[in-house]
């Protein structure tokens, strides 16, 4: 707790330095991971200051920061968190939660290779709440299992609806680490595939490396079971985790998705270009396909095609869309490299 701004920076550094040092235990260095919340002392209500510091440390943990200073916006966040969590169970059984679908296309042929299902929550009082906001909250609770099963079930229902309209393609659902430590999960997936009469080869799961690394042994065991069905496994946000290279060959994955942050400046940054090119070669050498995320310009699209990337996803191709816009997009879609060929012909 701090009474003035001047000593704040100095003292926070002192506290943080404690956690930067490792302790030697039986000859081995032990590292600590801590998220620190700070709050200013105002008035005498010490309980309130502790609450505020707690909110700030929760905020730091969620944002992946070492520390955070309490602000009034965090109180609002906390209130909203309670509203969101209170409404989740109802939302799972109503039309508030929906899936939008974003196409992935083959860079060479321009053909559709799949849809990624992305969840959306239209909350009755808070309005449109983005998944980055509500999914970390769900992940703190056991509801994450019901939520992921809801996403898979809804994706399979929509898959059948696309199929009826003549659009037959793979549908990918995002998973959380909690799903991969649940022994029941593979059985529940088989049950849903049977219920909706969908062949497992049309289902794909996306999971980030950092989610796998929370409990790598167990996660890899469950992923192996899923990939044996066979369901395709994609490593999401590739390049942003810690141990990409050490673990990649151990993962039963069929595909990596190169994170948007590598694609954004790829045309202007030769360093990024080399990293992406090396990741493509590495993935191919392990027998995996490569998808580029966040493709927004034709220049990015053509460069990725030249680098040998297999497929692309991003606003250039389409934004995530509700089900009723898919058919129209599908009928109108023409790949940029195909239009270039037309001009050249
Ligand atoms: P993600 O899996 O990396 O999904 C891609 C995100 O990038 C989506 O954000 C998508 O709308 C956005 N995006 C796609 N193309 C572009 C582009 O060209 N430019 C830019 N700037 N953004 C693009 P969204 O829908 O807000 O989802 C955010 C994250 O929330 C997802 O990141 C995923 O981690 C998580 N998420 C969404 N739905 C689910 C779900 O049903 N279950 C789980 N566990 N996570 C989900
Ligand atoms: Ca994803
Ligand atoms: Ca991603």
Structure description:
The protein is α/β, with parallel strands linked by helices and 345 residues long. It has 2 domains: 66 residues, no CATH class; 262 residues, TIM Barrel (Alpha-Beta Barrel), CATH 3.20.20.450. The protein has an 8-stranded mixed β-barrel, surrounded by 6 helices. Strands 1-2 form a two-stranded antiparallel sheet. Helix 6 links the parallel strand 8 and strand 9. The longest helix is centred in the middle third of the chain and has 22 residues. The model has no long low-confidence stretch (mean pLDDT 90). It binds ligand C2E and calcium ion (2 copies). The site of one calcium ion (CA) has 4 residues, from loops.
Short description:
48% of the residues lie in helices and 19% in strands. With 345 residues, the protein is of the alpha/beta class. The strands form 3 sheets. An 8-stranded mixed beta barrel has the order 5-6-8-9-10-11-12-13, surrounded by 6 helices. It has a two-stranded antiparallel sheet with strand order 1-2. The protein has a two-stranded parallel ribbon with strand order 3-4.
What helical percentage do the residues reach?
40-55%
Please, how many domains?
2
Low-confidence stretches: none
Structural class, by secondary structure, is alpha/beta
- Strand fraction equals 15-25%
Which series of helices and strands comes N to C? HEEEHEHEEEHHEHEHHEHEHHEHEHH
Number of strands: 13
For the CA atoms, what is the radius of gyration?
A: 23 Å
- Mean pLDDT across all amino acids: 90
How many alpha or pi helices? 14
């Amino acid at each position: 707790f701090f009474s003035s701004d001047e000593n704040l920076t100095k003292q926070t550094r002192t506290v943080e330095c404690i956690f930067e040092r490792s302790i030697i235990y039986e000859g081995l260095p032990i590292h600590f991971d801590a998220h620190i919340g700070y709050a200013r002392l105002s008035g005498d209500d010490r309980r309130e200051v502790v609450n505020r510091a707690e909110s700030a440390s929760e905020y730091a943990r969620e944002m992946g920061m070492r520390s955070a200073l309490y602000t009034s916006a965090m109180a609002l966040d906390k209130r909203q968190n309670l509203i969101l969590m209170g409404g989740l169970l109802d939302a799972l059984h109503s039309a508030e939660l929906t899936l939008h679908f974003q196409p992935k296309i083959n860079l060479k042929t321009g053909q559709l290779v799949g849809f990624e299902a992305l969840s959306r929550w239209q909350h009755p009082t808070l309005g449109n709440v983005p998944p980055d906001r509500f999914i970390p909250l769900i992940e703190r609770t056991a509801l994450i299992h019901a939520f992921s099963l809801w996403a898979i079930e809804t994706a399979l229902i929509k898959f059948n609806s696309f199929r009826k309209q003549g659009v037959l393609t793979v549908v990918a659902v995002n998973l959380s680490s909690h799903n991969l430590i649940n022994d029941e999960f593979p059985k529940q997936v088989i049950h849903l595939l049977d219920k909706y009469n969908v062949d497992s080869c049309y289902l794909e799961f996306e999971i980030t490396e950092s989610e796998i690394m929370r409990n790598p042994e167990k996660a890899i065991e469950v992923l192996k079971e899923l990939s044996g069905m066979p369901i395709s496994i994609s490593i999401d946000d590739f390049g942003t985790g810690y141990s990409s290279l050490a673990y990649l060959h151990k993962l039963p994955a069929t595909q990596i998705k190169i994170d948007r942050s590598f694609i954004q400046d790829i045309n202007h940054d030769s360093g990024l270009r080399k990293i992406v090119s090396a990741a493509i070669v590495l993935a191919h050498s392990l027998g995996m396909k490569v998808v580029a995320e966040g493709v927004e310009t034709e220049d990015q699209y053509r460069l990725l095609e030249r680098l040998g990337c297999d497929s692309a996803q991003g606003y250039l191709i389409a934004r995530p869309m509700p089900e009723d816009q898919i058919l129209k997009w599908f009928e109108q879609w023409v790949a940029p490299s195909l239009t270039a060929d037309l001009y050249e012909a």
